[in-house]
Amino acid sequence: MRIKSLFHSIVDKARFVEMFGDMVLNPNGWDKYKIGELCDVRDGTHDSPQYYSKGYPLVTSKNVSAGKIDLSDCSLICEDDYQKINQRSKVDYGDILMPMIGTVGNPVIVDLEPEFAIKNVALIKFKENSNPFGS
User: Where would you find the membrane-spanning parts of this chain (predicted)?
Assistant: First the structure.
């Protein structure tokens, strides 16, 4: 399984270079920006709210992988905790989530209308007029 993963990683990197060119040499003359110029970067809660049998999903690093958000295995939190977490880090359609623990560095573009909160997951929100995915 590790060899297959390495193979896919190498192929993905080669495909990226083929499509966009070498990031350092920048042969296509792409504009360069610091992420903070285009995006607001924050993270979800680091607290451990109480879990319930019904409620809102709390997405953690284990729920973000392979380009998808898996809501089927999330712990559930109450509406008060959901609202509290979302005051600081509300996830919207088109945002990018990046795990900060475990599967670090596997970003996911939020392609659903989110009704969940995040914990130990980086939230990258495009600034107004800079999001290529809409929102």
Answer: none
